Amino acid sequence: MSLTTYEMAKRLEQLEESPEKVMFGKLLQELGNQSEERIRSAAKQVPLANLRDIVYQFQQVIESRKGEQVQQMASELSEQGISVDELKAFLASRS
């Protein structure tokens, strides 16, 4: 049975921390290090429906990971002695 790269990616996504998933993550990391031109060139070889699904999946991951960024920022501010109320007051004064 031969799988396309897209089908393989979908199956790997279903696994937790398998070696295949780790390698796929490294592949995505490497993709992110490529030039815009190279990514666009490669994307032109992927069917449009697959591209839309890939973009949707990335958007879902980005949305789910926003909390990570907020938590990291909150920890950093807390370590610097800046309270939530001080941050709110600062942001309100800039509006």
Question: Would you give an account of this structure?
Answer:
- The chain has five helices and no strands.
- The chain has 95 residues and is mainly α.
Rounded mean pLDDT is 86
The largest β sheet comes out as: none
Annotation, overall tally of beta strands: 0
Which of globular, elongated, flat, extended, rod-shaped describes the shape?
Answer: elongated
User: What's the order of the H and E elements?
Assistant: HHHHH
Radius of gyration: 19 Å
Structural class: mainly alpha
Which percent range fits the helix content?
over 70%
Poorly predicted tracts of residues:
none
Q: Approximately how much beta-strand content do the residues carry?
A: under 5%
In whole angstroms, how far apart are the ends? Answer: 59 Å
Instruction: Estimate nothing, just give the exact number of structural domains.
Output: 2
Total number of helices? 5
How does the SSE layout of this entry go?
Elements: H1 5-14, H2 19-32, H3 36-43, H4 48-79, H5 84-94
What are the main properties of this structure?
about 100 residues, mainly alpha, single chain
